[in-house]
Amino acid sequence: MLRYIARRLLWMIVLLFLVCFVTFLVFYVFPSADPAQLRAGRHASPAQVEQIRQRMGLDKPLLVQFWDYLKGIVTRADFGYSYVSEQPVSKLVLDRLPATISLAVGGALLWLISGVAIGIVSAVRRHSKLDRFLMGLALIGISAPVYWLGLVALYLFASDIGMIPIASGSNTYQPITSSPSSWFNSLLLPWIVLAISFAAFYSRLLRSNLIEVMGEDYIRTARAKGLSERRVVLHHGVRSAITPIVTVFGLDLGVLLGGALLTEIVFNIPGVGRLAYDSILRADLPMIQATVLLGALFIIVANLVVDVAYAFLDPRVRFE
């Protein structure tokens, strides 16, 4: 197991290096605009643009530029400075990261618990009226876009229950350090909206897998030994059927930690996804690079955690 984890960590470093190299090529070798011109502004003179080019090191060979960029990331976690605010990119990303983590982790826990519970009930009571009702709701949840659900939820509930303050130009998100209750209230509706689509997919996936697993020989053997139906379903059936859920959950959580763009925009949450969206609109290249690398890091780490979790969930899985 330790050798497998060490090998995967080495591959993770290689993948991050490749992502860093590709993003550097996209923004500095094949740019849609001159980075020095973007940093200088529209009304800068050619002399000012050339001065900024020298200060940013854009007059150096490409390999030297990439090495300096990579060395800054590895040694100082330095992603450069924003073209818009002229503040360190790493500071701006770290300021937005708690909001995205709060949104993603809270929503993930909600959709995982509800999706698994609905999937188990539907599989055990398959073809019943309850099963048809739950799967009908799941189909609606999968079909409804997240941004549409968010707008409908704001329209129906925000002004009535008073949990989401809607004010023009203000952020609805409240940091947990300022007030835990305000933090919870500001994220409750986004968590529910984010969880609806994911829980619907998870419940349908677990239902189909669990129905297939419950027909296996070892399930009949467990029943023949006199084990209770609850133990057969939860200990033997769900443990084998939940492996695909773990795979999808790790990828979904990794993507959301990189930025839940639509949810953050609809609910005006100042997270990494909203930061990436604003950076794209303003052609803020260093900020876009940092958010791309952050998203890649979360996805790669989530893949590693999922693969390691297989060995604990499924005794048939062994890593050499």
Summarize the structure.
With 320 residues, this protein is mainly alpha-helical. Helix content is 76%, strand content 0%. It has helices at residues 2-29, 35-40, 46-56, 62-76, 89-124, 129-143, 146-161, 180-213, 217-224, 229-241, 243-257, 261-266, 272-281, 285-313.
The SSE order reads HHHHHHHHHHHHHH
Overall helicity? over 70%
Question: Would you count the extended β strands for me?
Answer: 0
Please write the CATH class name of the largest domain. Mainly Alpha
Q: What is the correct CATH architecture of the largest domain?
A: Orthogonal Bundle
Which blocks of ≥5 consecutive residues have pLDDT under 50? 166-170
Radius of gyration equals: 24 Å
CATH topology of the largest domain: MetI-like fold
Report the biggest beta sheet as strand number plus sense, adding barrel if it closes. none
Q: Termini, distance in Å?
A: 7 Å
Corresponding CATH superfamily of the largest domain: MetI-like
